[in-house]
Amino acid sequence: MMRQLNCLIFLSILNFIPSGVQAKTSVALQQQNDFSLKSLLQSLHTSRDPISGETKCCPIGYHFDGKDCVISPDCDSGCYFDSGKCHAREEPRCPGDGIPNGMNCFTTKGPECPTHAELKDKTCVVGQPQCGDGFEYDHSLRSCVSIESPQCGDSYDFSKGRCITKKRPECRGRGATRFENGHCIGTSPPVCDKGSYNDKLSLCQADAPRCPGGSSIQGNVCISKNGPSCARADDEYDPDMKKCTSKSHRL
To answer: What does the angle CA 168 – CA 173 – CA 175 come to, to the nearest 5 degrees?
Structure first.
């Protein structure tokens, strides 16, 4: 019907149908008794040129070659030649209530699962998993979990999957000790073989350093109490120049 309607529109635009026939067309379509027009439409089909892509109405047995309607090659019974191929006159069909879609047939009825099963996420689900007495199924763990919480002894607490004693750790080292920050700390301070223990530096500090006689410690060196002297009697040490200069050359 679509093929006939396309050709009818095409012929009307080109004024191919005589005016008398055109005048009768509306009456023929309403009364469905114009045998000549019906025969004309059934004898035409829309042919497409595969090279140019243009279409034209041609009689059955002819095809459009881009210029004219020419005799088509022979095809099997029930087929017609168009666009370089033999096309079946009947549209694709699917068995039962199937609907053709490309190379596949789809049905309007959705998938089903067997009795006592339910379709969930593309899978047929049969009830909930069952666990033994005192256990229940945990979906997040996918395991059977005990209804009761883990139990530890009276002097223990359950924490992070372990039983932890309520008693504080005891230190049993030599001397009096105490538990502090995960260590056993002695109550007596450290003892040095020589000098004294510096708690801030955590080091053994010896006695203060000493310098030879006539000198004293300044920073990390020993400085003589007497200043520098010159070998010659007429020379004297100049602290600004930091060398011995002659007295006679001074102004």
So the answer is: 110
What is the pLDDT confidence band of residue 243, given thresholds at 50, 70 and 90? confident
Q: Tell the residue number behind the tokens 């699917």, with chain if given.
A: 94
Virtual torsion, Cα 248, 249, 250, 251, nearest 10 deg: 100
| Residue 216 and residue 227 in contact, taking contact as beta carbons nearer than 8 Å | no
Q: How far apart are CA 152 and CA 118, in angstroms?
A: 43
Cα–Cα distance, 109 to 97 (Å, whole number)? 9
What does DSSP assign to residue 19? Answer: H
Q: Which two tokens stand for residue 68?
A: 């004219």
Average pLDDT over residues 151-167: 82
Domain ranges of the chain: 2-91, 210-251
* pTM given for the model: 0.26
Among the listed residues 61, 27, 34, 64, the one whose alpha carbon sits nearest the alpha carbon of residue 47: 64
8/212: higher pLDDT: 212
Strand partners, 182: none
